[in-house]
Specification:
By secondary structure, this protein is an alpha+beta fold. The protein has a three-stranded antiparallel β-sheet, with no helix packed on it. Strand 6 and strand 7 form a beta hairpin. The chain is globular.
């Protein structure tokens, strides 16, 4: 275990120890709160538009999710290839807040995914579906 005090001293000052504890606690809470495995896509309906001259692909669609976790979820994580990007996300026809970020993964040839962390308007109970 490495100390957060100056120079790795085994006897850091109290405020430095507290700061270290707060940082570790916040990091742990953030990691625990984001459950990338909570939802399963049970149905999807995609409309794909190919534009070969511009070397572009566009997609619009609707997915149905099921909360397979053991507790209600208000955050859903969606992932697409890093060669694509998120333009908008809607729940029941209304735009919702989301944060888009890269996420390292070997699931496709790019080595990364474009991840959208979506805040849902309401919690989805365990084993219930949402669209």
């Amino acid at each position: 275990m490495k100390w957060c005090g100056k120079g790795g001293s085994p006897h850091p000052r109290n405020h430095e120890t507290s700061l270290c504890f707060v940082r570790l606690t916040c990091a742990s809470l953030s990691a625990a709160a984001l459950d990338r495995e909570a939802f399963t896509i049970t149905k999807y309906d995609l409309e794909i538009q190919l534009e070969p001259q511009q070397q572009r692909l566009g997609a619009r669609g609707k997915v149905t999710l099921r909360n397979d976790s053991t507790h209600p979820q208000k955050i859903v994580v969606l992932q697409i290839s890093a060669s694509l990007n998120w333009r908008s996300i809607r729940v029941d026809g209304k735009a919702v807040q989301y944060v888009s970020q890269p996420y390292q993964s070997d699931i496709d040839h790019t080595g990364a995914l474009a991840e959208a962390i979506v805040t849902l308007p309401a919690e989805i109970s365990q084993r219930l579906r949402g669209t």
